[in-house]
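Something for you to look into today, if you have time. Just paste the record in under my message, thanks.
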Amino acid sequence: MAKDAPTDRTSATRSRDHSHNTINAGLNGFAQDLPADRVSVRLSPNGIYNDMGSPDYREQFLHTAKQMNALKIGYLHIMDGLTHGFHAFGDPMTLAEFRNQFDGALIGNCGYTQEPAEAAVAAGHGYMIAFGADYISNPDMVERFTNGWPLSEQAPMDVWFSFDKKGYTDYPPYTAT
């Protein structure tokens, strides 16, 4: 709801405040059972899924991050990479932009490798960086990073995103050849 492109909305429902109110309504529902610091929000400002993207994406997402900061949510998870495509309405958003709006735990994700992940954390842009598909095909990723071992090639999505037995547990740890 932080983007105006996926649905056909009237100008009254296209505002930043309306988008935030939609997210806030969901958070208020959770707040009946959980304190705000036990709830997180995940944003995909650069994504293209279902034709996402809008000319005002930067303003929408920074406004939302600022509002999430005011609510003191547990963490904000930002899909700031471009591995799943980019809507091209402007320059891609970065984790650093969100750090300027959100004081809490900020997690970056999507296409990071070891060096950019470590640099983002060292610079204070993120509290941590999450690894998804690369971690699935490298269950010993921490050891690989620590020892400078190469990562296994990422498995295709249809292998690890399926209902078959093959997938999440089929990847061996690193062995020197």
Q: What stands out?
A: The longest strand covers residues 75-79. Residues 11-130 form one domain. The helical segments are 16-31, 57-71, 95-99, 114-122, 133-136, 141-147, 157-160.
